[in-house]
């Protein structure tokens, strides 16, 4: 094949491909103290990951209102339906169901809210996909138990999932256990509800917390199959291809080692055991985990599919003089000098998505689902022929280029079920807690200072995505 040429893939996507969008409860719902909801870690993160948590809720936390999806979900879901969504990925806020996380009984008001959301999705023929835990650990579990460093969290999570599966199992087919599970290593409070400052945590602490999450994920996968035999349970990984900065073998090995840091979580979810390269890393770095025989048995309950987020790629080098971390590189790596970056320093690499999809499919042979992909930008609301909108051609270009690479991966033979853009409507950013970092096809009139009407306006990309969906991808170029 060395001299072979490949023609660009064209035409529509496979029949039944699930097009849609994705959000998270803490970034859209608001109503942080309504409906019996308890506090979550997000209620003490007014500036996202850019500063240490506050003692309690503060008025400058945009997530207290967010975009008020809690009260406007009917309007928003109708807009999603107008775009043609086949699927909508959303998360359930754990502290709406168990306000403290360790409550004896669930909060019926919280369950009723999500039942109403499902009613609207069913009304419009939109398939729900539920993320069970999306950076929303109940604050009490974080502060009383130390978050996922504590094995007791497994039972609390199982109880939470059991309630969700029993209440909504007949209505939801697709479930994701933890959002971007590999991010615990980099953002332990956000991802694992671990209140100890990161610089005071050992690698043993972090990997033990992740082990508890992996065991919890596997246990509820088994539970789901008992309660909802028709359901599909997936893991969710932050995908980020790693390229060697130069062809030097040292850089290639460095890139491989960094890539292993993310592969490990998919390997465990898909293969049911810890991979050898991770066990070697533990040995070489004096990391000893408490792993029981029951844990090992539980981990064999592997997922049905692999979902992932994709925003950027990075490069790696073994040369200390060149190891300058990029501004937006939460997961490490150095900027790739051949790529442009977004306003927030993330390298824009559409072909990296094809690389990831081929990589994951060949590695795990599990159906893939792209559940996050998009570009954050400072959109400008303008008036065109008396209608307020955003001329976001940059977003259209970004999305088009990435979806073209999804089509290429499908032509390569990758089994991919669907694609949900992040976030289909403007949301409060997880990393910076800003609203000015906009991702959606729908503009929400709210600003970083909390001002605004909360009115919704269709961006230019709204109509573009509507055409992409209605043509099943045939309009991509």
Brief write-up:
The chain is of the alpha/beta class.
Distance between the termini: 26 Å
Give a count of the beta strands, DSSP E runs of length 2 or more.
14
Please give the radius of gyration in angstroms.
21 Å
User: Average pLDDT value?
Assistant: 96
CATH superfamily label? Glycosidases
Provide the CATH top-level class. Alpha Beta
Q: Which sheet architecture does the biggest sheet show?
A: 8 strands, parallel, barrel
Share of helical residues: 25-40%
The CATH architecture would be: Alpha-Beta Barrel
Any idea what the shape is? globular
What's the total helix number?
A: 14
In CATH, the topology is named TIM Barrel
Instruction: Give the percentage of residues in beta strands.
Output: 5-15%
Total separate domains: 1
| Pattern of helices and strands | EHHEHHEHHEHHEEHHHEEHEEEHEEEH
Q: Provide the spatial order of strands within the biggest beta sheet.
A: 1-2-3-4-5-7-9-12
Main structural class? alpha/beta
- Stretches where pLDDT is under 50 for at least 5 consecutive residues are none
């Amino acid at each position: 094949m060395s001299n072979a040429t490949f023609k660009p893939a064209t035409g529509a996507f496979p029949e039944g491909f699930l097009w849609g969008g994705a959000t998270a409860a803490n970034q859209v719902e608001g109503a942080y103290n309504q409906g019996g909801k308890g506090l979550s870690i997000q209620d003490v993160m007014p500036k996202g990951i850019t500063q240490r948590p506050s003692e309690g809720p503060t008025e400058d936390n945009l997530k207290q209102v967010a975009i008020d999806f809690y009260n406007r979900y009917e309007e928003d879901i109708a807009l999603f339906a107008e775009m043609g969504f086949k699927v909508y990925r959303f998360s359930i806020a754990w502290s709406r169901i168990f306000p403290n996380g360790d409550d004896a009984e669930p909060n019926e008001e919280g369950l009723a809210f999500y039942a109403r959301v499902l009613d609207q999705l069913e009304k419009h023929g939109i398939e729900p996909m539920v993320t069970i835990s999306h950076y929303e650990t109940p604050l009490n579990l974080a502060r009383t138990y130390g978050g996922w460093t504590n094995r007791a969290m497994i039972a609390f999570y199982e109880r939470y999932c059991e309630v969700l599966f029993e209440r909504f199992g007949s209505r939801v087919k697709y479930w994701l256990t933890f959002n971007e599970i590999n991010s615990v290593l980099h953002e332990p409070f956000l991802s694992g509800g671990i209140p100890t400052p990161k610089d005071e945590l050992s690698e043993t602490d972090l990997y033990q917390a992740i082990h508890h999450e992996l065991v919890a994920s596997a246990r509820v996968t088994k539970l789901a199959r008992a309660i909802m035999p028709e359901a599909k349970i997936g893991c969710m990984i932050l995908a980020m291809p790693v390229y060697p900065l130069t062809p030097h073998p040292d850089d290639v090995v460095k890139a491989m080692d960094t890539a292993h840091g993310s592969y490990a979580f998919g390997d465990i979810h898909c293969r049911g055991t810890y991979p050898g390269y991770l066990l070697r890393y533990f040995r070489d770095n004096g990391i000893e985990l408490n792993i029981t025989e029951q844990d090992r048995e539980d981990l064999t309950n592997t997922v049905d599919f692999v979902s992932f987020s994709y925003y950027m790629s990075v490069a790696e080098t073994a040369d200390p003089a060149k190891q300058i971390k990029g501004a937006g590189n939460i997961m490490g790596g150095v900027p790739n000098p051949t790529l442009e970056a977004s306003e927030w320093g993330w390298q824009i690499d559409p072909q990296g998505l094809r690389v990831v999809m081929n990589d994951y499919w060949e590695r795990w042979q599990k159906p893939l689902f792209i559940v996050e992909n998009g570009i954050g930008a400072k959109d400008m609301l303008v008036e065109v022929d008396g209608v307020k909108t955003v001329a976001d051609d940059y977003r259209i270009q970004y999305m088009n280029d990435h979806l073209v690479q999804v089509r290429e991966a499908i032509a390569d033979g990758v089994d991919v079920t669907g694609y949900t853009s992040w976030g289909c409507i403007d949301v409060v950013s997880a990393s910076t807690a800003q609203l000015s970092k906009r991702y959606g096809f729908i503009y929400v009139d709210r600003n970083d200072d909390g001002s605004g009407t909360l009115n919704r306006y269709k961006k230019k990309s709204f109509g573009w995505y509507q055409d992409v969906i209605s043509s099943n991808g045939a309009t991509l170029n």
